[in-house]
Design brief:
13 strands; NUDIX_hydrolase-like_dom_sf; seven-stranded mixed beta sheet; about 325 residues; 4 helices; NUDT9
Length: about 325
């Protein structure tokens, strides 16, 4: 009788554990789905960034979807003059119809495919933002027509006190995570130290390069210092966890050009490895620091959504 009770109790504990794991996985998948399908807002009904107050055409929620007919829709057209002629930017195919770009495909070294799947083209042959209308056409300040791919490394550690013990949040009954945040030089908002994937560059290389440039100021390092940085980053940026892959609700998005990213979490469980990094703002970043993870935080684009996914995956305070 006693043996049978022990067996039943072990079965109960096992099933309970499986249920908790499945529930956690479902919540994580739901959060990822929400981040990738929510109605975009930061690239709609606001002034276009760094464009002297250029205002987008107002797009009500019910008219965001391209499938909804809207004959009165007359968005303004804008491409930042600083984009023209840059090596990292496409030509203006509206004024140069003889130029053909291969959308939804690998165009030489440029990846014009979308993480969202196939995107539509309008009558002019221009890509249509898969998340709908934004109130402005053209490329804005983005270099590519269609998807502009970025990579966002989310580097985290556990917050500790002076004794080296993890800091526990009584309200949420969870430990507190910290992540490396940079203050963007263009808008002053806090974000991950990420950036664009260069033509022909692997995403894994982009993650390492952007972190080194913006959070460690590698561009100002001596050759010897740069070699040391590369070694440290190569050792740390190995066991990353993909948190998100898809559309970014970026304020620079337009009807014909938009941001997409791969966000990868690199977590230092003990804090020993990341302690070797001397954080120093560089490239496009004004400041860099460790920042506590929590629901009260406000970040650039929808980086906050990605951070929430990390917190839930690590079972940390949110």
């Amino acid at each position: 009788m006693y043996t049978r009770r022990v067996v039943l109790w072990r079965v109960f504990l096992f099933l309970s554990l499986i249920t908790l794991l499945l529930h956690s996985r479902l919540l994580h998948n739901f959060s990822r789905m929400s981040a990738s399908t929510a109605l975009h807002t930061k690239c709609r009904n606001s002034a276009y960034p760094l464009a002297n107050g250029l205002q987008r055409v107002l797009v009500p929620d019910e008219y965001v979807d391209w499938r909804i007919s809207w004959a009165a829709y007359q968005p303004i057209s804008y491409t930042d003059p600083r984009v023209h002629g840059k090596s990292w930017a496409d030509p203006d195919i509206r004024t140069s119809p003889e130029i053909t770009l291969k959308f939804n495909a690998l165009d030489g070294k440029i990846d014009r495919t979308s993480y969202m799947g196939l995107y539509q083209l309008n009558r002019e042959g221009l890509p249509l933002n898969p998340r709908g209308r934004t109130g402005i056409t053209g490329r804005g300040s983005l270099g590519r027509w269609g998807p502009n791919h970025a990579a966002d490394p989310i580097v985290t550690r556990w917050k500790t006190n002076l004794s080296g013990e993890r800091v526990f949040d009584l309200a949420s009954k969870r430990f507190i995570l910290q992540f490396v945040a940079i203050q963007r030089g263009d808008c002053g908002e806090w974000a991950f130290p990420g950036g664009m994937v260069d033509a022909g560059e692997k995403c894994t290389d982009s993650l390492r390069r952007e972190f080194a440039e913006e959070a460690l100021n590698s561009n100002e390092s001596s050759p010897e210092e740069l070699e040391t940085l590369k070694k440290l980053i190569a050792e740390f940026f190995v066991d990353g966890t993909e948190i998100y892959k898809g559309y970014v609700d970026d304020p620079r998005n337009t009807d014909n050009a938009w941001m997409e990213t791969i966000a990868v979490n690199f977590h230092d469980e003990t804090g020993d490895r990341i302690a070797k990094f001397d954080l120093k703002a560089g490239d496009d970043a004004k400041k860099v620091q460790w920042m506590d993870v929590g629901s009260e935080i406000n970040l650039y684009a929808n980086h906050r959504d990605f951070l929430e996914l990390v917190a839930k995956r690590r079972n940390a305070k949110w």
